[in-house]
From TrEMBL:
GO terms under cellular component: endosome; membrane
Membrane topology of the entry: Multi-pass membrane protein
Record key words, sorted: Membrane, Transmembrane, Transmembrane helix
Segments traversing the membrane: 6-30, 37-57, 77-96, 103-124
Taxonomic placement: Eukaryota, Viridiplantae, Chlorophyta, core chlorophytes, Chlorophyceae
Name this polypeptide is given: Vacuolar protein sorting 55
GO BP annotation list: late endosome to vacuole transport via multivesicular body sorting pathway
Compartments, record wording: Membrane
Family assignment from sequence similarity: Belongs to the OB-RGRP/VPS55 family.
Cited InterPro entries: Vps55/LEPROT (IPR007262)
Length: 132
């Protein structure tokens, strides 16, 4: 295993750990566990993408490529639609005054970090250098 492979894996592990820590801290620090509903969305978001598959071609799997099919497009659409829920749930809870603005900021930061981690994984996974 090359040093570059090890660094990428460590960055991905750090990103997932940081995102989950922010998610948990958003609940613990503000003594309100309603934001954990977003945890359900973290499980549901990749499901359409996994079921309908990715392109597997030369292009990036999430960003699009030369080979497109209706099922892959449907999977990307449903994944994006589900990803909006991970941002909308805390926003709706904050609007309804169920959670505080601090918890909303922590939840949105967690979604941002986890989303960036997924995009980083997808970027390195679509390369032909055999990372994962």
């Amino acid at each position: 295993m090359a040093i570059q492979d090890f660094r990428v894996i460590m960055v991905l592990a750090l990103g997932v750990s940081t995102g989950l820590l922010l998610q948990l801290l958003g609940c613990v620090l503000f003594d309100n566990w309603w934001p954990m509903l977003v945890g359900i969305m973290y499980v549901l978001v990749p499901m359409p993408y996994l079921f309908f598959g990715s392109t597997g071609g030369d292009g990036y799997a999430i960003y699009g490529s030369n080979i497109q099919s209706g099922w892959v497009d449907a999977g990307k659409f449903l994944t994006g639609f589900s990803a909006v829920g991970s941002i909308a749930i805390p926003a709706i809870l904050a609007h309804a005054k169920v959670i505080t603005i601090g918890a909303l900021i922590m939840e949105l930061a967690a979604a941002l970090v986890l989303g960036a981690t997924v995009l980083t994984y997808d970027y390195f996974n679509s390369k032909d250098t055999g990372f994962f």
